[in-house]
Design brief:
Layout: E1 13-18, E2 21-27, H1 33-45, E3 55-57, E4 61-64, E5 94-97, E6 110-113, E7 126-132, H2 134-137, E8 158-161
Antiparallel strand pairs: 1-2, 1-8, 2-7, 3-4, 4-6, 5-6, 5-7
């Protein structure tokens, strides 16, 4: 079996460490350069370390990146303008940026798709793709009810840019 991480640019690869194991995400600066830059800045600051996956919906996605765990928090960086792609689609393992009703309100919250979601195509910015460890994402604790709010949620152990990782 070939290694899906071979040939990836370490500057555009993230290691998302969960209690279940390591997830490798290939960044997509070709689709969303502003979002990739914001994510890498926050990762390098350690912003995501210890933050919860506060909204997790079976058959849909796991959302994290809010230090408050409420779904309303963000970073001290400015919000990012939408970078919608006409070619990239929300598939299993796609990483997208969460936002409010305004397309230009993305900040730090993101989600990873469990399943394809065509209704998100062209509506949310795609910034990455899981290339290894999706089985660990599948094990993130699910929320209850329609909103997917998680009590005692799983948390990001560590997030790192591969170029910086030892």
């Amino acid at each position: 079996m070939s290694d899906p991480t071979l040939g990836l640019d370490p500057e555009n690869t993230l290691y998302l460490d969960l209690k279940q194991g390591r997830v490798v995400i290939q960044l997509r600066p070709d689709l969303a350069p502003l979002h990739v830059e914001q994510i890498k800045t926050l990762v390098r600051r350690g912003f995501y370390d210890g933050t919860p996956f506060h909204r997790v919906i079976e058959g849909f996605m796991a959302q994290g990146g809010d230090p408050t765990g409420t779904g309303t928090g963000g970073s001290d960086l400015d919000n990012i303008r939408a970078e919608f792609s006409n070619s990239a689609k929300f598939a299993r393992g796609t990483c997208g940026m969460a936002r409010s009703q305004s397309p230009n309100s993305a900040n730090s919250q993101f989600f990873i798709m469990f399943e394809p979601a065509p209704h998100l195509n062209g509506q949310y910015t795609i910034w990455g793709q899981v290339v290894q460890g999706m089985e660990h994402v599948d094990q993130i604790k699910r929320g209850s009810g329609g909103g997917g709010t998680v009590s005692d949620p799983d948390r990001i152990v560590k997030f790192a840019v591969a170029a910086d990782a030892a």
